[in-house]
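ESCALATION

Customer reports they have been waiting on this structure for their group meeting. Please prioritize. Original submission:
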Amino acid sequence: MAVSGIFVHKSRSILTTLGIVIGITSVMVVISVGESAQGLVLQEIQQFGPSNVFVLPGKEPKGFTEGFGTLLNDSLKQKDIDDMAKIPNVVGVVPYAFGTALVSFESESERRTIIGSSHSSQENFNLEIESGRYFDTFDVDQKARVAVIGYDIKEDLFGQTDPIGKKLRVKNTTFQIIGVLASKGQGSFVDYNDSIFAPYPVVQRDVLGTKHFQRVAVEADSVENVSNVVLDIERVLRENHNIDDPEKDDFFVQTQEEVANSIDMITGVLTVLLGCVAAISLVVGGVGIMNIMLVSVTERTREIGLRKAMGATRKSILYQFLTEAILLTGGGGILGVCLGIALTFLAVSLAHSFLDISFPAVISIKGIVLGLGVSTMIGIIFGVFPARQAAKKAPIEALRSE
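Update from on-call: job pushed to the front of the queue and completed.
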């Protein structure tokens, strides 16, 4: 009888369910895309390898807003890089200095990201060369004005022309192009296709006008020695910066595990916050369910009176109307989950096609369970009051209703 009651008023049932469908779809997409983005970031971090640690300038951020201050801190200098390279069990130190600058070729000018680093950055970022070569140790030592450009820069500025050997002006400095990167999906930290890589001494001196680094990757010889390397890095940097109290550190060291945990926490919080915003539509949908069910109870007063006169109990009347509410919201939940899965794949596909971001498509089991569970609970919560109103009607008064 509950099912037939829904199908008698098809249009009203569809419109009532629509609010639940939209709410569940929103929650499903937010959670799934959030987990997909988290997977992308973790992939980027893991490509550096578990034996790498990162040294960043400034105090370790304790909140979302504090993280931006580290980029402006100038505590990591060349002496720090040289001394960290002498630490036992350290097999590589890769500094990074980066910023944006106006890039010009002939009459074309665009603002792009320039990254100054050592030759090891190719391995760190897993960069493949389409043509030419990557800069080497000799180029870094000689402060050579050479550059490796991203695939998009080559397409935008040079088109079908071979850029190898051509001169590219970055800010007020001319670089010779020695290599072009193969097209690579956008990373969580860097858009490789839209970036220029060059030896860090010339980038610092001639482009950025700085003597500090925004990030340093230090590689230990084994995962087992990572903790010892971290302690040695902290000791060396405190000596270099004349710091006696660890509370006054103007740098911080992160292991791969710590970075992954930080990313997991941040994306988790953001997903929950966005999910809560999306869940507001579920409350609106629930209120709509209650309103429609109250209207339905009013319209079917004579039916209720007739059923009671024929022997129906309060409990059976309550269960009938409550079942209608649960079927409406449960059906909306199932449709919302299916639509949410489809939209998640669509979002991942669009990100790959238009933004060149290789999101791993993650269908959140947690989102599916949450969507179906919440939709059913909404049916129960917002269906109880109309069902009780129907169950409490006196049969004589109900039969007398017009």
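Sent to customer with the following note: Residues 2-44+261-400 form one domain.
Escalation resolved.
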